[in-house]
Amino acid sequence: MNRQKAALKTVAGSIKQFPEESLPEIAFIGKSNVGKSSLINSLLDRRSLARTSSAPGKTRTINWYEIDETLYFVDLPGYGYAKVSKAEQQRWGQVIERYLQQRTSLKKVLLLVDIRHAPTADDQMMMEWLRYYQVPTVIVATKSDKIKRSQLEKQKKMLREALGLQDPADLLAYSSETKMGAEALWERILEGAESDGSTAF
Ligand SMILES: Nc1nc2c(ncn2[C@@H]2O[C@H](COP(=O)(O)OP(=O)(O)OP(=O)(O)O)[C@@H](O)[C@H]2O)c(=O)[nH]1
Ligand SMILES: [Mg+2]
After folding, report:
1. Triad 108, 112, 118: Cα angle to 5°
2. Per the domain annotation, does 201 fall within a domain?
3. The dihedral of CA 168, 195, 26, 96: what is its sign?
């Protein structure tokens, strides 16, 4: 698979606009501004394929990026952004939930959290939801370049405990700036994409 060959294929603002299921999908979820779009760019060695912003609430649609006719990366809008109205947050909650529930082609969820902070109540809820429905999930602890190397293990342990992870391999420290963790994460992505199991229920 040529990771260089990636393009935005579909943009959906509502459930009606979801594309047909054709390729395995890897979904990127997490709170607003945690670095979902940046992670997609860095994994694909692209500067601005997915649009990023220092202001939260940048991604407002579900975006499917097709990689070499083999795989989709699915960039979801962030949750927990206070400036978005309650009504819109609720509507998006439903769209995201529907996406996670109904896609048979969804192979793995990457749940992003900021390595510097304890998970939010929304992160906890999302983790519980994914666990309950047995969706294969990898936690990506982003912005690892922002802490000292000596703090890495401590922060990873804190996050693993807070999210109730049994297997330490299910959490990877990552940096979109330095690409720390990129190869390990690609391995998990490809293993997910090649699995037969679907996550739909
Ligand atoms: N230092 C550092 N900054 C990062 C990293 N990842 C993302 N950022 C910065 O964090 C900000 C938010 O990144 P985005 O990728 O737009 O975040 P998002 O999760 O897609 O946000 P929404 O679309 O609003 O949900 C940007 O200013 C990025 O440059 C990282 O690994 N290290
Ligand atoms: Mg985004």
Report:
1. 135
2. no
3. negative
Phi-psi region of 164 (alpha: psi -120 to 50; beta: other; left: phi over 0): left
Residues 129-163 have pLDDT tens digits of 999 989 999 999 999 999 999 999 999 999 999 99
Cα–Cα separations (whole angstroms), residue 139 to 15, 86, 89, 144, 169: 26, 27, 23, 13, 9
CA of 43 to the centre of ligand 1 (A): 13
Q: How many domains does the chain have?
A: 1
Residue 154 maps to which CATH number? Answer: 3.40.50.300
CA–centroid distance, 46 to ligand 1, in Å, is: 14
- 80 Cβ closer than 6 Å to some ligand 1 atom: no
